[in-house]
Amino acid sequence: MSDFPGGGTAPAEAHDDLDDQVDDMAGNRISGATARAVLNHVVHSITSEPEAVVIEAEERGNQLRFRLHVAPGDMGRVIGRRGRVAQAIRAVVAAAGSRDGVSTYVDVVDE
Amino acid sequence: MEWVETTGKTVDIAKEAALDQLGVAEADAEFVVVTEPRSGLFGLLRGEARVRARVVPKAPRPKRGRGAKNPRAESKSKGASKEKADGYSDRTKSRSAKNRAPDGDEPQRGSGKAKRQSGERSSPKAGSKNRAKSDESTEETSKESSNGRRSRSANSDGVDRAEGNTNRPGGSGRRREGADTMQESAPIEVQASEAKSFVEGLVREMGLAGTVSSQVLDESTAEIKVEGDGLGLLVGRGGTTIAAVQELSRAAVQRATGGRVDRILIDVAGYRAKRAEALQKFAQQVAQEVITSGTERRLEPMASPDRKVVHDAVTEIAGVGTRSEGEDPRRYVVIFPTDEAPGDSLPHL
Fold first, then answer.
1. Which of B192, B238, B194, B230 is nearest to B211 (CA)?
2. What CA–CA distances, in Å, run from B286 to B217, B276, B329, B335?
3. Which partner from A70, A105, B190, B261 sits 20 to 30 angstroms from B254, CA to CA?
4. Which of B137, B177, B193 to mutate to test the interface with A (most CBs of A within 10 A)?
5. Is the pTM of this model over 0.80?
6. What is d(CA B310, CA B22) in angstroms, rounded to the nearest whole number?
């Protein structure tokens, strides 16, 4: 357990799919990019199967609704006791979204 | 560490009251349900729930406790703390099966057997969950009733499993993935480091320019500080975003270490200190008004750490007392006048 990341690996992995999302092919910023990046970072940081994480986004005007899918075993972590973690995710993503000028909501999808 | 005992209409409410008194987050406390309210459908609860709670001490450490429920375990110093904690719960039938499993995975070298036996003896009653409690995802209370039923019948099963565990060589130490099984916490330095890297990532993804530092305050408390300009976004109205970041940091540390998470405090741009100070002054001012007017005052809803600041600020003042009412997140403090003559009151609790 001495190999914990002082600064390193986890955030980097969170970046992977992110770079694709931040800019479209022409290099334009996609709306809500900050919110997406933050959601991505958070969810990857708290799930034990980050590779199973899927984030869908639905945009309506300046509203951005994320649908978050995680591995069944991670549902508890992502929701938390009485939804506390889910609420925290929403709060942080909303803060990030305000930088993009979008209002956001995050649904944790139970499938 | 002090135990507090609270009551409430439901176990949940009683627990919230206890957290309030302790001024810590759910995850930092351990509970013993002393009495569950008589079951029934919603609205038909009769009798009050009574719980006992305290701040989880840095584990492992021998528990000084009331009474020798498990005298045998007493003689074993280290891992014994856990099972003794278990012994506390006179009435928590619901826990036995569920929580015995994680117990077995805890590093309780050597002391397993004695404890198992004593545990077994008091078995239907001595189920427990104290450790498991610290995990954000163990939804003890909400599952309370259904579990109670299930595991009562599953009791013998729980015992069997416990028995089997004694044969396990040396326990298995920490596991990395263990949402449901709470082990020892990782060293606080490790937790601090994990929390720091989570927060760093967050600050970066938010596109903010802040410097993140971590500090170990004591053996079970770490503080992560974000400093810089333009961090208002990360504070949020009334510190709500800080609170959210704190919650998520805990989750991230839990994921990364697989162990129990100690206290992780997040501060952004010195917000907490400023707010605590302002809140303290405000509470004292209201207390004076209550003394003068003789009528109680209800403050606006606050989160548990803030309520703690209020309770602490006001207990020092003679002639007033505090209590919390309502349910989170709308739980609030009431400052009320007491008859005690100013001067002869001691802050207690």
1. B230
2. 31, 15, 22, 8
3. A105
4. B137
5. no
6. 12
